[in-house]
Amino acid sequence: MLSYQYTARNPATGQQVKATVEAESEAAAAKLISGQGLVPTDIRLGSTGSGFTGKLGSRIKSKDRVLFSRQLSTLINAGLPLLQALRSVNQQTVSK
């Protein structure tokens, strides 16, 4: 599930509401918001930092992630088992 940040208006009071909702898609998020009796005015994909990869993404440089992905892909396409490919990439990586 993805996290969406939204701004909506409460039609009864006219107040603006800002919050987050988890849904499979933007359309599903809009349906959930409308189900709460709110009128969505803006829905945006929220930060992906809530999961494991989001936490790592902020500490690992993009260059290192790209290099890791390319090396792992090459080894897997060459027929190496995943565990052996991961160990090999780990041995070749300079950055922790």
Task: Describe what this molecule looks like in 3D.
The longest helix has 16 residues, at 62-77. The protein contains 4 helices and 3 strands. The model has no long low-confidence stretch (mean pLDDT 85). The relative contact order is 0.14. The two termini are 30 Å apart. It has 2 domains: 2-45; 60-92. With 96 residues, the protein is of the alpha+beta class. The chain has helices at residues 26-35, 52-57, 62-77, 82-92; strands spanning 2-9, 16-23, 39-45.
Key words describing this protein structure:
elongated, alpha+beta, 96 residues, 2 domains
Structure summarized in a few sentences:
This protein is an alpha+beta fold and 96 residues long.
Secondary structure blueprint with pairings:
Layout: E1 2-9, E2 16-23, H1 26-35, E3 39-45, H2 52-57, H3 62-77, H4 82-92
Antiparallel strand pairs: 1-2, 1-3
Helix pairs in contact: 3-4
Question: In which order are the strands of the major sheet placed?
Answer: 2-1-3
Q: Helical percent range?
A: 40-55%
Give the strand tally: 3
Order of helical and strand elements? EEHEHHH
* Straight-line distance between termini: 30 Å
Low-confidence region ranges: none
| Secondary-structure-derived class | alpha+beta
Q: What Rg do the Cα atoms give?
A: 21 Å
Which word captures the global form? elongated
The average pLDDT is: 85
Number of helices: 4
Q: What amount of the residues lies in strands?
A: 15-25%
Number of domains: 2
| Main sheet characteristics | 3 strands, antiparallel
